[in-house]
Design a protein that fits this description.
The complex is a heterodimer of chains A (770) and B (310). With 770 residues, chain A is α+β, with helices and mostly antiparallel strands. Chain A has 16 helices and 29 strands. The chains are: A alpha+beta (770), B alpha/beta (310).
């Protein structure tokens, strides 16, 4: 027959005429091979097999029956052959990813090794002679590990193999009990010979000594009992091929061409003599010795040591082809299963154990000096410490899996009652309490200094967590310790419930909001009678603070603003400035109001106020309208969280009186510009003071001074107002102080500190009393 | 990694000693101080280590690299070298001229003598070191997966328990020692050269990644991990002409990129033969099967390139 067959499909062999009588010798070839050789090993005899693989399996055992000599050649084409590894690598990656969630080479190597070891085990059970082929000329100690693993595996499987062999007819009892018909011999074949003039025989013999020595020391072969395979005692078992490697076809062709082109090239005569004539060395010849021995007396390599008297020689028989076929088929079913051989997975097992060992250490590092509860940033910091430790000590392919586990464990530890609430306060500080129910109050632990409505009292302010606390409750509380509560004040309209179950209005961000805006713009016209029509709702209140875009008819439950009258205008002396007793906390020489001269046109029957700068032009007649001038003292007061207060003289300048209490600035700049809502306080770098109070000392004249504050806490943000009935009129000859909100919250959005925030111009106004 | 620190004591001698032969750097797990006298207060050394299986040509490759400056002396040496090789080659065919003793002596790193080959033992034991005149420290490591190394460990129980560990099974002690040395080189080298004589042994690739896994990390747990990973250069000695074809070379690079996907070693730092249009880059270098009959000297110049890139 010419055909080759692939285990376990013996179809072509069944037609062999000597199926029931041929006594066969089985020779198997295995090993590693370079990419170029397409998986061909031991070429001098392997030529019966074609290069390249025929099946799509990762491991193929191809067979060929030499009918004339009754020899079966088996050729293992495995993942140790470079061409097959390259072919299957991507599918291996995929498989490892699916089954083991990891595609590290070391994981894939487990598969490579395991699949090879199984095939090796099979060959150890169905061969007489095994040829281990090496691509180089040195023995690879890696084989020792394979032999060890296969040895263990073989002992484990022996019972199972014997069992299935019992079911095969015609096998001898020894064959069945041993699981195989002989202890095979292993021949070490080396594809290359070292360059130079060496005594190849000597190289071979030395290599034999070394291999034998190591195999014996590692107890892979023993002189007693049964071992996985045997080394012939008195025959050569190492063969170094001196044939030129024939894999470099291109190189051979080019070299031939060059040679032919040289003078007399084609005629070149090769040296007729060699130190090692090739004709005398041929692997087949070498192999023939072993085959012959198998045919005649069989192998008895294990008991040959004279010192050990063996009770019985190792079993050896030449199987009948049919028996071999059936037994091989049976053993194939037992052995060739998918699955890892754990004794070969050293790298991954190491990695696993190492990670398992380091994981608790890393977790302990995370838990070291752990506070009872802590914030996300602290969790991250601790986690990164734990990861650094894990990074430094854990190893290998399962590293990533355990990193994920470590992260999850740390997170679980944190979330198991150690989480800090971390809810941000109105000033952006996290709550320091452990995670709590929503009905419990937050606490960031920060306490600021803040000034009351009238400006007389400085008290501690807890970091507020809602607008009501910030803009209303705090001032209510501090007013009890101050005269604020007793002062005359103008209250802004707030929601008055008519029923008990009042609720927050639900606001829709749709066209309604737009129509509201246009509605408002109408309101800006002088004819403001429509305001009378609108009745504020008494069942629903405005959830946020009042802005120009708030829906009409809704009022907040409390006012975020306050407007109090400190008393008569005489309370303020422009020579002395604001007194420390009435207005504590002012920075040096900033405690002055600014004089603002306003010309009032008396006859014009308009509500509109015209303001002219009075500088140097006082009394200048403008048209027919009679006019007069009044002086109003105004001030925009800023307050920082440490309780520092100061006035601005211009949007970009702190008011500064020169020695002798001379204030050179006038109030025009602050009255006629947008004022910043936040201004750097001088007390500390990066600390912002917030515009908190507007001071107005009204003149004793038939005019109404008015206040109409509009605050835009961020560019594009809604404009906050104190009341819908604007502007607010103040009484004559009095000292009025308007306190602005501490925080700005519209509907649901909170506007934190923003340097673009401003108080829009047109706050201060003066109208004639009609 | 500053090897230079070891040499800072030598202040008296400003004259730079040049080396003509490698010295032992590490033997039986003991670091030797033979290098000290050659290392002045210079600091910018390039450290190149080489590993590989037995007989693949590690020392030969380093010898080629060591000769990268052309002085008259070296020209002569290289020339003689070639002549000696010529004789080798001829001797294969004509006579039984023994390996030129002179030549072996001239080599900076010990290469296998005929005797070594015949007794199947390795020429380099432990790690040999040589410093070139342009401050390249070359480290030549004993082979891994070598039967000779394992045999030696098997024979001397003492050595095994000292170098490796008493508790490691015999069959693994050779591998463990190889891993130790390779991981050590990975920690101290800028460039790690891996020599193979065919394409390719999956076990070599696996071995390197195991060594990388075992490489010690230098970090105190408080700090960020400051880990060093050398450039990896795969050299294929005895490459065949087919390997040089663009198609084949591209395949080689692609495979290595796949196999080394997870490594942190610097594998594509332009040290290889590849130029930009040959696919995914990988540091692979091919050295053709040496055959003086056809005058294959070009690789010498390529070796120079490697050093220049560095």
């Amino acid at each position: 027959m010419k055909e080759t067959f692939i285990l376990p499909d013996f179809q072509p062999l069944l037609e062999v005429s000597g199926l029931n009588c041929d006594k066969v010798v089985i020779i198997s070839i295995m090993g590693k091979s370079p990419y170029n050789s397409m998986g061909m090993k031991a070429k001098s005899i392997g030529r019966v097999f074609t290069a390249g693989c025929k099946s799509d399996d990762e491991c193929t055992i191809e067979g060929f029956y030499d009918e004339e000599n009754q020899i079966i050649y088996l050729h293992l084409h495995s993942l140790l052959d470079t061409d097959l590894l390259i072919k299957h690598y991507s599918s291996l990656v995929e498989r490892c990813n699916n089954e083991r969630k990891c595609d590290d080479l070391l994981v894939i190597n487990d598969e490579i090794k395991s699949s090879f070891a199984r095939a090796l085990l099979l060959l150890f059970h169905v061969s007489h002679i095994m040829i281990l082929s090496h691509p180089g000329w040195t023995f690879d100690t890696n084989w020792i590990q394979y032999f060890k693993a296969v040895d263990t595996l073989s002992q484990k499987k022996l019972n199972k193999i014997s069992e299935v062999l019992k079911n095969v007819d015609g096998l001898s009892p020894d064959w069945v009990s041993n699981g195989r018909f002989c202890t095979p011999r292993v021949i070490f074949y080396f594809e290359q010979c070292p360059k130079g003039s060496y005594n190849i025989k000597k190289v071979e013999h030395n290599l034999e000594d070394r291999i034998y020595h190591i195999l014996k020391k590692t107890r892979i072969i023993s002189t007693y009992g049964s071992s996985l395979f045997a080394i012939p005692m008195n025959e050569e078992f190492v063969y170094i091929s001196t044939e030129a490697p024939s894999t470099d076809r291109l190189g051979d062709a080019v070299r031939g061409l060059i040679q032919d082109c040289q003078p007399g090239g084609a005629m070149q005569v090769q040296p007729p003599f060699c130190s090692q004539p090739y004709s005398e060395r041929h692997f087949l010849k070498f192999l023939q010795v072993h085959i012959k021995q198998a045919r005649t007396k069989g192998f008895n390599d294990t008991g040959s040591s004279s010192r050990h008297q063996l009770s019985q020689p190792a079993h050896f028989e030449l199987p009948i082809l049919k028996h071999w076929l059936e037994s091989t088929k049976a053993i194939y079913e037992v052995i060739m299963k998918k699955g890892l051989i754990s004794s070969l997975c050293t790298d991954t097992r190491f990695s696993e154990q190492r990670c398992l060992k380091v994981l608790p250490l890393a977790l302990a590092r995370y838990q070291e000096n752990l506070p009872p509860h802590y914030a996300h940033s602290e969790h991250d910091r601790r986690l990164s410490m734990a990861l650094a430790l894990f990074n430094a000590q854990a190893r290998g392919p399962v590293f990533q899996q355990y990193v994920t586990k470590l992260k999850a464990d740390c997170k679980a530890h944190w979330e198991n009652g150690r989480q800090q609430c971390e809810a941000a306060s109105m000033t952006g500080n996290p709550c320091k309490l452990p995670k709590h129910q929503s009905d419990q109050e937050h606490m960031s632990g920060f306490i600021y200094k803040a000034v009351c409505d009238c400006g007389r009292k400085i008290g501690p302010r807890e970091d507020p967590y809602n607008a009501k606390q910030a803009n209303h409750l705090f001032y209510q509380a501090i007013s009890r310790e101050c005269i604020c509560s007793k002062l005359e004040r103008i209250s802004f309209p707030v929601f008055q419930p008519s029923i008990k179950e009042y609720k927050a209005a639900t606001l829709k961000e749709t066209e309604e909001a737009l129509s509201v805006l246009s509605d408002r713009s109408n309101e800006l016209t002088p004819e403001n009678e429509r305001g009378l029509v609108r009745q504020p709702s008494t069942t629903e209140y405005l959830p946020g603070m009042l802005t120009l875009s708030s829906p009409p008819g809704l009022l907040p439950v409390y006012s975020s603003w306050s407007l109090v009258c400190l008393g008569p205008s005489s309370l303020y002396s422009h020579n002395l400035g604001l007194s420390e007793s009435h207005h504590p906390g002012f920075l040096n020489s900033t405690n002055y109001l600014l004089p603002w001269d306003v010309t009032v046109y008396s006859k014009a029957k308009m509500n509109w106020v015209s303001k002219y700068p009075a500088r140097g032009r006082r009394g200048r007649p403008t048209g027919a309208s009679p006019q007069f001038s009044v002086k109003v003292f105004i001030g925009v007061e800023y307050e920082c969280s440490s309780g520092h207060r100061f006035m601005l003289a211009a949007p970009d300048k702190i008011l500064k009186a020169t020695p002798g209490s001379i204030v050179k600035d006038t109030g025009h700049k602050i009255a006629e510009s947008d004022m910043p809502l936040y201004y750097p306080c001088m007390c500390r770098a990066n600390k912002l003071a917030q515009l908190m109070r507007l001071h107005v000392v009204t003149p004793k004249a038939p005019v109404h001074c008015t206040l109409d504050p509009k605050v835009q806490p961020a560019p594009g943000a809604p404009i906050f107002i104190s009341t819908v009935e604007r502007p607010t009129k103040l009484t004559q000859s009095a000292y009025w102080v308007m306190r602005l909100p501490y925080v700005y919250v519209a509907d649901k959005e909170h506007y934190p500190q923003n340097l673009g925030a401003k108080l829009l111009q047109g706050v201060f106004g003066v109208t004639e009393i009609e | 990694i500053t090897i230079s620190s070891t040499g800072s004591e030598t202040q008296s001698a400003p004259t730079v000693k040049s080396m003509s032969k490698s010295v032992k750097f590490l033997e039986d797990s003991v670091l030797l101080e033979h290098l000290q006298e050659f290392v002045q207060e210079n600091s910018d050394f390039l450290v190149v280590g080489v590993v590989g299986a037995q007989g693949v040509g590690k020392s030969t490759v380093l010898n080629l690299i060591a000769h990268n400056t052309v002085s008259e002396d070296l020209k002569e040496a290289i020339f003689r070298n070639c002549e000696a090789r010529n004789e080798d080659f001829l001797s294969e065919n004509f006579t039984e001229i023994k390996l030129d003793e002179e030549k072996v002596k001239r080599e900076i790193f010990k290469i296998q003598t005929g005797e070594d080959v015949e007794s199947n033992s390795n020429a380099t034991r432990g790690i040999d070191a040589f410093i070139t005149s342009n401050r390249v420290i070359l480290l030549d490591c004993q082979p891994f997966m070598s039967v000779a190394v394992l045999d030696e460990l098997v024979q001397s129980e003492n050595k095994r328990s000292n170098i490796v560990s008493e508790f490691i099974p015999l069959e693994n002690s050779g591998e463990i020692q190889g891993l130790q040395l390779t991981a050590f080189l990975m920690s101290i080298c800028h460039v790690l050269i891996v020599v193979q004589d065919y394409f390719f042994d999956s076990n070599v690739v696996r071995f390197l990644q195991t060594a990388e896994m075992l490489k010690p990390t230098h970090s105190n747990p408080e700090d960020e991990l400051n880990d060093h990973f050398p450039h990896l250069l795969m050299i294929h000695n005895k490459a065949q002409m087919d390997d040089f074809s663009p198609r084949k070379f591209k395949t080689i690079q692609e495979i290595y990129n796949l196999l080394f996907e997870k490594t942190k070693l610097q594998k594509d730092s332009n040290l290889g033969l590849a130029d930009d249009n040959s696919g995914e880059l990988f540091n692979v270098f091919l050295i053709p099967e040496y055959n003086p009959k056809y005058g294959n000297y070009f690789f010498l110049f390529n070796e120079q390139n490697v050093c220049q890139i560095e």
